[in-house]
Amino acid sequence: MSTSAQHRRTSFSLLCLGALGVVFGDIGTSPLYTLKECLRASGEHPGEREVFGILSLIVWSLTMVVSVKYLAFIMKADNKGEGGIFALLALVPKRASKRAVGGVAILAVVGAALLYGDGTITPAISVLSAMEGLNRASSSLAPLVIPLTCAILVALFFIQQRGTGAIGKLFGPIMIVWFGTIGALGAYHLAQHPGVLRALSPVWGIRYFADHGWISALILGSVVLAVTGGEALYADMGHFGPRPIRTAWIGFVMPSLVLAYFGQGALWLSDRSIENPFFAMVPDGAWSLVLVILSSAATVIASQALISGAFSLTRQAMLLGYFPRVTIRHTSHDTEGQIYIPEINWLLAGGCVLLVLAFRSSDSLAAAYGIAVTGTMGITSIVYYIVTRETWGWSRAKALPLLVVFLSFDIAFFGSNLFKFLDGGYVPLLIGTAFIAAMLVWSRGRTLVVEQYTAKFPSLVDAKPQLAKLLVARVPGTAVFLASSLDHVPPSLMRVAQRARTLHEHVVLMTVRHDDVPEVTDDHRVEYAALGEGFHRVVIHIGYMEHPSVHDVLARVAAAHAIPFADAEVTYYLGRETILNSGAGRMGKVAETLYAYLQRNAVAADRAFGIPPMQVVEIGTQIDL
Hints:
The protein is of the alpha/beta class. The protein has two domains: 13-430, Amino acid/polyamine transporter I; 457-623, no CATH class. It has a six-stranded mixed β-sheet, sandwiched between helices. Strands 1-2 form a two-stranded antiparallel ribbon. Helix 8 (145-158) packs antiparallel against helix 16. The chain has 25 helices and eight strands. The chain is elongated and about 95 Å long.
């Protein structure tokens, strides 16, 4: 084997290991509580037919939702390697009607916002369910369950700054032990009751519905706990790529999960007095404590999938104009999707701790779990159908049957979870609603701001006659105006000309572009154009792993093109809008107030681009949206 081939094989193995440590944590720890909740939802005295039916529903849900829907189909829809609902939105062609694109955008925003709600509950229920195993190990440890859960959650969010790549390498080996352990325990108990394997047939799931009528739909609200990590799996695709995720799932994760579920079912059929079939797979005492420790480590890792997915969704939302500028720290030189966003990280951390303190048990949290993620699953199916039709050109005869199959699971799961609304299902919906409002208001606000600016501030060619009338002098030196558009004059420039009636002899219109590469070479770093009459256009390209100082880049450009650039004397002009909130505009007072709050808390351009703060002048503009 050549050295390069061996390197590729090693890199692929590390990606598979990382995927085990990040992507599969959520779905991999579902055996902790899924069968327990299913048995509880099935009634007081479930028999063998009920257990077989539940196991059949679980295994076929894993097969159809995760293996078929997400791994075989949905993960083929990526936007430059990124997955998630916003990646699907980015694939919808602009040639589609404005109304259709707007409708898809709203669906994508709703789906992403619901995933934030699910991302807040997942760490809480996962860690809390593991720590509740202390009750079985020793009743004296019960008072420690809540404090230890909160402490573990805070520690989990604290280490996020190391990046998903480093976390995956750290957590990957633990998850190998986890999946190996639950698979081995399941196989041991399955060997004692091999007849449970008959539940692999979908007939048992169908019989469950036939035996229990419409009430049987309620069981799906608990069965869905087995597949809640599917959407996060897709959102995390950009961190490791589809091939390592598919390989790890088919080769290791799914077989371990099926063995764990069937082993628990076999154990429960042999002793129906068991309250928690997962922790009952080992004897009481020391072995229970060992399993609690391993479960705790695994559930910490389980939370990683949703946290990483929230980071990815936030970055995509920001790039698409649905979220204000936040601090994005890239943590891998090789993979663009591996990022850390401190604002989102600590927002989720606070939400998780509050949920643990409010609900105090995994049984209570299970009632709040499911509505958000199943809603997102259904929206993903619909947007995927639009992509297959509008972007890939599939015929309706090819695309529609696939949509029907996907929605047959999504709608059934979503409908069954609606019955849990008053028991806690409203929590993720409230969280999701807050994010929906923030994203839609931000998008609408930015659209109105751009419309006002483009109407008031023309291109430089059209603006030069106006500037000639306004200016009484050109003062020595160089001024840099940040310009988000290459087609229009920055509003800050026109405001300076209108109020001060002067401009510097040299004016640089600077635009920063983020490229989809780790580092931009020096040959492609800068685009320069002399615009005449002392005006210069500079476009600076930055890779996703770079944090260069644009001040230093501009100094090199100035030296190359004979632009005066005394280091401490250059002035940077940044625009900042003040929202009036008068209620007279098109946006409405409440929406304007929320937009103004988001704008005030967005990361400032000088911090984002490394501009010396003592050389910045902010030009305010009052706007009524």
